[in-house]
Amino acid sequence: MKLYHLLPLFLCLILVGCSDQKKPSSNAEQEQTPPDIHTSQNSLDWEGTYTGTLPCASCEGIETALQIHYDLSYELTMIYLGEDEPNTVETKGTFSWNEAGNTITLDNEEVPNQYFVGENYLSKLDMDGNRVTGDLAEHYILSKKQPETE
């Protein structure tokens, strides 16, 4: 019997048997790996003034400026555009972060007023706390106003 035909098979078995295979990690190893604890609240430079024009059902738009501070206070100015008389609403108060650390809620507002906090932007959320999707989604973004350099 000619064994040289079986030689490639033996070589493959030896190589596979000697390869450096990693063992699946145990539960103990997985538990030692800390979870990713980065959130908008602790990782982003979120303090500042955010501006934009939000959609409005009964006017041309709502020119919005929201200033949020590290002491969890805010100042909100909304100007309703296209009305016969200027209609400006200004409120101040405090805000709180959600448990995930990515959304703020303006505490002193009559209706839920929530914003998802991203890198240099706030995204106005709907009444249920969800991000607006579809064709109008980009109109619900307030951009962070960069400080002027001298």
UniProtKB/TrEMBL annotation:
Residues 23-44 are annotated as: Disordered. Pfam families: NlpE. InterPro entries: Cu-R_lipoprotein_NlpE. Residues 24-44 have a biased composition (Polar residues). It comes from the Bacteria. PROSITE patterns: PROKAR_LIPOPROTEIN. This is Copper resistance protein NlpE. It comes from Gracilimonas halophila.
